[in-house]
Amino acid sequence: MNELNYLKQIIDSVKLISDEAIERRKKSGSEFNIFKVLNLENKEVPIVRFLLELLNLNGCHYQGDYFLKSFIRNALSIDEEKIGDDELIKAKVRREVSTIDNKRIDLTIETKSTYIGIEIKVYSHEHDHQLQFYSKELTRSSKHSYLYYLTPFGEESEELDKNKYESMSFKDDIIPWLIEAKNGLDDTLIRLKLNLDQYICVLKDICGIETEETTMKVKDYILESEDNLKCVKTLINALPKAQTQIMLNFFNGLKEELINHSIEFDKKIFSCNEEDIKKYYESHKRVWPSINIKFLDRQKDKINHDIYLRLEVDYRLFIGFIVSDTGEKDVKIIDKKTKDLFSQVFNDMKVGGENNWWLVWKYIMIENEWVDFKSFNDNVIKLANKNNLTQLIKKCVETIETLLKEKEKVLNSLKKS
């Protein structure tokens, strides 16, 4: 059997293992997840609050410092020499702590000798030099301080020097810690362990991780022979190239379709070429492949700033309007009237944050599910099929055309205001 046929056999066998595991989970009720049923897995705030409740010494888990201690030791890797167990018993765990600059740190842990700050981003962007302000706030303390930046995959900050903070990831730090902490609980704590299981499943979905059952069965299959292991190594090496090609096919197809519809896009602002997409999958620095279409021109339309319609991949595919004069993040203050106007006209979109170049934005969904290129979810995997790729591109173009039709309405309203 030649190598390609053997690879195909490996893929078919792994698919069978995965399909069987999914069926078992369906029959056992394991697919029922309260976070997903209530659509909470799509929202950053409840995901972060669940984590904070676990770390709270007086949390409704009633396990005292159990979760905090295991978090400090296993997720943050801070040993007893730096923070003793006697200090953790009296630790203060708080959320959204105000700084002297009126910013809010997502999570702080304070002991007699140590001050820890953690900025958490699940879906949102780093913005407004947050980490710089938090670093400044922590250094004001006379205590030994740590600053962590927690994201799904351990991205690096674009706004702060690496020697002033540490990156953390849900994938490599939080999920393993939660699994270990759950396994260490008494078997009588059935409901608590069940809730932890459901929370872990949500985090795994965000990070694109298969269930433990599937992973272990695939591992056992791979280790059945040297040839299996060798073929899987070949597949692993090819995966980043396949991921890059899927996204490249999407953006190339989208650009071609925009040209066919006589929609001009700016070729100078950012880009979605092969090199950028490679960085997206291979680098811990944030890269945002995108297409930008001039919506309003500050000189031609006699307004304060250029406004672009932007389709972007952060983790997920989304679209909205940005304010910029160069295509870079150069506009720090957006007129509130402009933001309010866009939120009224495009009332199905979310409003961008304070001092954020996004006016309004929304996800582009397929069957009420995200198109998540970072975790490479099923909606992205389906783009390997040309028909599915064509349908997504068609949906994006239709969305762009619909939004562009509001240009005159927006311009007239801006001039009146």
What this model shows, in words?
The structure is a single chain. Helices cover 47% and strands 16% of the residues. A hairpin with a 5-residue loop joins β1 and β2. By secondary structure, it is an alpha+beta fold. The longest helix is centred in the middle third of the chain and has 35 residues. Strands 1-2-3-4-5 form a five-stranded mixed sheet, sandwiched between helices. A five-stranded antiparallel sheet has the order 6-7-8-10-9. Strands 11-12 form a two-stranded antiparallel sheet. α10 packs parallel to α14 and α12 runs antiparallel to α15. The protein is built from 15 helices and twelve strands.
The count of DSSP E runs of length 2 or more, i.e. the number of strands, is 12
Mean of pLDDT: 85
Question: Assembly type of the shown chains?
Answer: single chain
Helix percent reads 40-55%
What descriptors fit this protein?
single chain, 417 residues, alpha+beta, 5-stranded mixed sheet, 5-stranded antiparallel sheet, 47% helix, 16% strand, globular
State the gist of this model.
The protein is 47% helix and 16% strand. The chain contains 15 helices and 12 strands. The strands form 3 sheets. Strands 1-2-3-4-5 form a 5-stranded mixed beta sheet, sandwiched between helices. A 5-stranded antiparallel beta sheet has the order 6-7-8-10-9.
Q: Layout of helices and strands, plus pairs?
A:
Elements: H1 3-28, H2 34-37, H3 44-55, H4 66-75, H5 85-88, E1 92-98, E2 104-110, E3 114-120, H6 130-140, E4 144-151, E5 166-169, H7 170-183, H8 190-207, H9 212-222, H10 226-260, H11 274-282, E6 290-296, E7 307-313, E8 317-323, H12 336-345, E9 350-351, E10 358-363, E11 365-366, E12 369-370, H13 378-381, H14 386-404, H15 407-416
Parallel strand pairs: 3-4, 4-5
Antiparallel strand pairs: 1-2, 2-3, 6-7, 7-8, 8-10, 9-10, 11-12
Helix pairs in contact: 1-9, 1-10, 4-7, 7-8, 10-11, 10-14, 12-15
